[in-house]
Fold this sequence. Notes:
Blueprint: E1 8-14, E2 27-32, H1 38-45, E3 64-69, E4 73-77, H2 88-103, E5 110-116, H3 123-135, E6 139-144, H4 151-164, E7 172-175, H5 184-195
Parallel strand pairs: 2-4, 2-5, 5-6, 6-7
Antiparallel strand pairs: 1-3, 3-4
Amino acid sequence: xxxxxxxxxxxxxxxxxxxxxxxxxxxxxxxxxxxxxxxxxxxxxxxxxxxxxxxxxxxxxxxxxxxxxxxxxxxxxxxxxxxxxxxxxxxxxxxxxxxxxxxxxxxxxxxxxxxxxxxxxxxxxxxxxxxxxxxxxxxxxxxxxxxxxxxxxxxxxxxxxxxxxxxxxxxxxxxxxxxxxxxxxxxxxxxxxxxx
Length: 196
């Protein structure tokens, strides 16, 4: 089935478990650290400028935001993590929301974990990766900000990300630049393949 990724609409923001969408459509869950460019990656995939809001302040996504793509699949934008300027109470609330989302059978069809291509994944990235692995869904790791690397750094950095996250052979690691669009085609065709 072809998916028209240019046809996207915002559906709802879930702040608690009871409002999660459970209509049987595949859900592609996007997760990443607060300032890793998650919204920019989603915007790049959908050819929109400010569709997933790019916050001037990291940590703006505090709910699970659902975008319906072509009436067929959801992109779910999960709260960014690892941003320090949030009260402990807020962080705990997100934590519970995320746990509920991950623990519920059959919600996530595909996990997309966005990391920074320039750096070794953080402990939070590793935790998030483990959550995806434990949920049993296929996993794609997107190494964003590729345009900030020299050519010679790409391969060693990708290897370091792969090793740090202890990715299973079934996982995919896609070098990506939300800025330039590098990796967009590969990511979209992987999403389409895994969700059809």
